[in-house]
Design brief:
about 140 residues, alpha/beta, Nuclear Transport Factor 2, Chain: A, globular
Amino acid sequence: MTDVTVVGDAPEIDEIKRVVQLYVDGFQGSREKLEEAFHKDAWIFALDADGALAIDLISDRFERWSDSHRAVKSRFIAVTQAGEVASVLLGFDNSENLADSWVDVIALVKVDDAWKITNKTAAHSTRAAWAKPKY
Protein backbone atom coordinates (compact mmCIF):
# COMPACT_ATOMS: atom_id res chain seq x y z
CA MET A 1 0.00 0.00 0.00
CA THR A 2 1.22 3.50 -0.73
CA ASP A 3 1.98 6.09 1.90
CA VAL A 4 -1.01 7.33 3.83
CA THR A 5 -1.03 10.68 5.58
CA VAL A 6 -2.33 10.32 9.11
CA VAL A 7 -3.48 13.47 10.88
CA GLY A 8 -3.08 13.22 14.65
CA ASP A 9 -3.30 9.89 16.45
CA ALA A 10 -5.35 7.26 14.62
CA PRO A 11 -5.24 4.22 16.89
CA GLU A 12 -7.99 2.43 14.93
CA ILE A 13 -6.62 3.12 11.46
CA ASP A 14 -6.59 -0.56 10.50
CA GLU A 15 -10.26 -1.00 11.37
CA ILE A 16 -11.24 2.27 9.69
CA LYS A 17 -9.42 1.21 6.52
CA ARG A 18 -11.02 -2.25 6.69
CA VAL A 19 -14.51 -0.73 6.71
CA VAL A 20 -13.69 1.59 3.80
CA GLN A 21 -12.22 -1.38 1.91
CA LEU A 22 -15.56 -3.21 2.38
CA TYR A 23 -17.16 -0.38 0.39
CA VAL A 24 -14.61 -0.77 -2.42
CA ASP A 25 -14.92 -4.57 -2.41
CA GLY A 26 -18.70 -4.31 -2.60
CA PHE A 27 -18.32 -3.35 -6.27
CA GLN A 28 -17.14 -6.91 -6.93
CA GLY A 29 -20.63 -8.33 -6.41
CA SER A 30 -21.06 -8.14 -2.65
CA ARG A 31 -24.07 -6.20 -1.47
CA GLU A 32 -23.38 -7.67 2.00
CA LYS A 33 -20.05 -5.84 2.19
CA LEU A 34 -21.75 -2.57 1.28
CA GLU A 35 -24.39 -3.13 3.95
CA GLU A 36 -21.67 -3.81 6.53
CA ALA A 37 -19.67 -0.71 5.57
CA PHE A 38 -22.44 1.90 5.47
CA HIS A 39 -24.85 3.17 8.08
CA LYS A 40 -28.39 2.50 6.86
CA ASP A 41 -29.04 6.25 6.59
CA ALA A 42 -25.77 7.21 4.85
CA TRP A 43 -25.84 9.75 2.02
CA ILE A 44 -23.78 10.39 -1.08
CA PHE A 45 -23.02 13.71 -2.75
CA ALA A 46 -21.24 13.08 -6.06
CA LEU A 47 -19.93 15.60 -8.57
CA ASP A 48 -19.54 14.00 -12.00
CA ALA A 49 -17.08 14.91 -14.76
CA ASP A 50 -19.53 17.48 -16.16
CA GLY A 51 -20.02 19.15 -12.77
CA ALA A 52 -23.51 17.78 -12.14
CA LEU A 53 -24.23 17.00 -8.50
CA ALA A 54 -26.13 13.82 -7.58
CA ILE A 55 -27.48 13.34 -4.06
CA ASP A 56 -28.86 10.01 -2.90
CA LEU A 57 -29.38 7.71 0.02
CA ILE A 58 -26.45 5.32 -0.48
CA SER A 59 -28.51 2.21 0.18
CA ASP A 60 -30.50 3.09 -2.96
CA ARG A 61 -27.27 2.44 -4.92
CA PHE A 62 -26.27 -0.89 -3.35
CA GLU A 63 -27.83 -3.11 -6.01
CA ARG A 64 -26.39 -1.13 -8.92
CA TRP A 65 -22.96 -0.92 -7.30
CA SER A 66 -22.70 -4.60 -6.39
CA ASP A 67 -23.96 -5.65 -9.83
CA SER A 68 -21.41 -3.45 -11.62
CA HIS A 69 -18.40 -5.71 -10.95
CA ARG A 70 -16.14 -2.72 -11.57
CA ALA A 71 -12.41 -3.33 -11.24
CA VAL A 72 -11.74 -0.67 -8.64
CA LYS A 73 -8.83 -0.30 -6.28
CA SER A 74 -8.58 1.74 -3.13
CA ARG A 75 -5.87 4.35 -2.74
CA PHE A 76 -5.83 5.62 0.83
CA ILE A 77 -4.54 9.19 0.67
CA ALA A 78 -5.25 10.45 4.20
CA VAL A 79 -6.90 9.19 7.37
CA THR A 80 -7.96 11.27 10.35
CA GLN A 81 -9.44 9.93 13.57
CA ALA A 82 -10.67 12.01 16.50
CA GLY A 83 -12.07 9.57 19.04
CA GLU A 84 -15.22 8.06 17.58
CA VAL A 85 -15.29 10.07 14.34
CA ALA A 86 -12.99 9.62 11.37
CA SER A 87 -12.50 10.70 7.79
CA VAL A 88 -10.73 9.10 4.86
CA LEU A 89 -9.59 10.76 1.64
CA LEU A 90 -9.76 7.88 -0.80
CA GLY A 91 -8.75 7.39 -4.40
CA PHE A 92 -11.40 5.12 -5.92
CA ASP A 93 -9.44 4.09 -8.98
CA ASN A 94 -10.94 2.11 -11.85
CA SER A 95 -8.03 -0.13 -12.82
CA GLU A 96 -9.57 -0.92 -16.21
CA ASN A 97 -10.19 2.72 -17.08
CA LEU A 98 -8.42 5.37 -14.94
CA ALA A 99 -10.48 8.04 -16.72
CA ASP A 100 -13.50 6.66 -14.80
CA SER A 101 -12.00 7.13 -11.34
CA TRP A 102 -13.18 9.16 -8.36
CA VAL A 103 -11.85 10.79 -5.22
CA ASP A 104 -13.99 10.38 -2.13
CA VAL A 105 -14.11 12.11 1.21
CA ILE A 106 -15.63 9.51 3.52
CA ALA A 107 -16.98 10.29 6.99
CA LEU A 108 -17.27 7.54 9.58
CA VAL A 109 -18.64 7.25 13.08
CA LYS A 110 -18.17 4.50 15.64
CA VAL A 111 -21.59 3.24 16.73
CA ASP A 112 -22.03 0.34 19.16
CA ASP A 113 -18.32 -0.49 18.82
CA ALA A 114 -18.46 -0.68 15.00
CA TRP A 115 -17.22 1.86 12.45
CA LYS A 116 -19.84 2.84 9.85
CA ILE A 117 -19.60 5.16 6.86
CA THR A 118 -22.18 7.92 7.28
CA ASN A 119 -21.42 10.09 4.26
CA LYS A 120 -19.54 9.90 0.99
CA THR A 121 -18.73 13.08 -0.90
CA ALA A 122 -17.16 12.27 -4.25
CA ALA A 123 -15.70 14.12 -7.19
CA HIS A 124 -14.87 12.64 -10.56
CA SER A 125 -11.10 12.38 -10.82
CA THR A 126 -11.01 15.14 -13.45
CA ARG A 127 -12.22 17.50 -10.71
CA ALA A 128 -9.90 16.21 -7.97
CA ALA A 129 -6.75 18.27 -8.72
CA TRP A 130 -3.66 16.74 -7.06
CA ALA A 131 -5.62 13.77 -5.61
CA LYS A 132 -6.54 12.19 -8.95
CA PRO A 133 -4.77 8.97 -9.97
CA LYS A 134 -1.49 9.24 -11.83
CA TYR A 135 -2.14 8.28 -15.44
